[in-house]
Model the fold of this input.
Amino acid sequence: MPKATERRGLAEPDPRELVLYLYERHQKHVLRLALRYGGGRLGWAEDVTQDVFVSLLSHLPELHDVEDLDGYFYRLTTRRCLNRLRHERLVNSAPVKWLLTTLGRESESPETRALVHAELRQLGLALDSLPPKERVVVSMRFIDHQSQQEIATALGYSKGYVSKLLKRGTVRLRQAGFEVNDAG
Amino acid sequence: MPAEPTKPSLEAYGRAFRQMQIRPEADARIRARLQAPLRWNQRRFLLSPRYWALAAVVVVVTIGLAIPRVKLAPPPVSCEVESKAGLNSYRGTCQLALEGMTVSMTSEVTTLVEEMQRVELVEGSASFVVEKVAVGGEPVVIRVPGGRIEVLGTHFDVQLMSSQGALTLHEGRIRFTSDGQSAVVMHPGERVVWRWAEGDRPPIVPPLGSTLAHQTESEPMLAPRPEPPSTTAKTAAPTPSRATRQPSERTPPPATGEPPRASRRLPQPETAIARIMELKLQGKFSQALLALDKAASGVLAPHAREVLSFERGVLLERIDGARACAQFELHQSRYHAGQYARAADQRLKRCASSHDSLTHDADNSPPLLDDKTQ
Done:
């Protein structure tokens, strides 16, 4: 199967140019995903966006069709966000905070406060209070309408584990006073 | 009553970020980063096995350079063999691997006779490690001046001096039999000192020296119980000294021509013989035979074995004449010069004359066992 670069008619293009091309096309999508997982922290989402495209540089040879990378960026961004959230949670845990003087968590950006309704921000805070895995799984299921199997495949979990995470997440959100439509 | 406001859905939360865009300064930063020359992906390298292999090599090289090398000098090995008139004289640290045993010389000069099925220590000191003999197998016999050592698999040291020897057992069990037929069964940790007449020595090359002090006492030599052997101390034969003597050392009984006394630890067959006699008087010959076989399977003095061998034939006469004749033949082959030789010979003659009339009256039996085992 010919590689993406060959299919596009580019004879060994500079990978930096190709990544810039992909950045132009997908950076908005990546940023929105990161904002959603990061609870509206714009700086955090921008860092994730940079990470995603920098890592793309080393994965370019593995890509076969650069014109159809929506699913790839969705999975890549979700995994990056999940890793960052887990790392953040570890760093902000009490023992690590006691050992290492870490910076406080970035607060919601002014842009988010201006654009996002107050009630939606409350929902964002409730979502933000979930453990990283539950937050990501709940977002994928109820915002992006991914099936449990698709979530499991994207994150590398079993379907049963995804189901358990979803159940826990929905229970927590309902306890916070938000409706979660299971059928959705 | 005012209606409760509707809670926002998760979908609405997802849509809320659609209008947000990356800030210009962040956009410029990312573009600059993506256009920068390709850098080595340090993080990937740190996670790769190559990183750990390189780290291991660096650690090993560092340790190798940091720690000065200590050269362990090999132990000096010097072994000279001199053969003369069938005797092999070993000088220095020698080790022989013979069939079924390993002999380590522990004195300056050690003289051995090594032949098929025969090892004789003539002079010096040696440590023997004998492989375990299979059940029912013939014990390994090591001749020494004034006696012999029967071994079933063990580790022991022998030190020969001018007119006496010392035998130290480390493992297993051995029987030392002096030329006067007195026997001592030894247990681990025990030491036996024996003497012999000077004329008993084979004509050998005069010793050039001995690591052992000569002892002149006629009574048993008392020496400390040897420590358990260790791999590093195998060549250090214990040297008996008067100042450190302990009452654990034994000497074999003197050879007087009388039946030898069993050693202190030798199982006494009297109890078993009394039981056999009791069963015999009760007419329970089969049970008596079983008790006899059980008693004979243990460690016994040679004379006790002779008594039990003959008594087995007598008991078998009551049970099975053919087996009794076979037992007497076996007895004669083993103890043809023993105290029961004449009686056994008479029984064998009867076996030859009449196979059917071997069941005699008990009055014609040989002397009672208890009379002979005293």
About this structure: Chain B has ten helices and 15 strands. Residues 49-66 of chain B form the longest helix (18 residues). The first strand of chain B starts at residue 79 and ends at 84. Chain B touches chain A at residues 5, 7-14, 16-23, 26-27, 29-31, 33-35, 38, 41, 44 (CB under 8 Å).
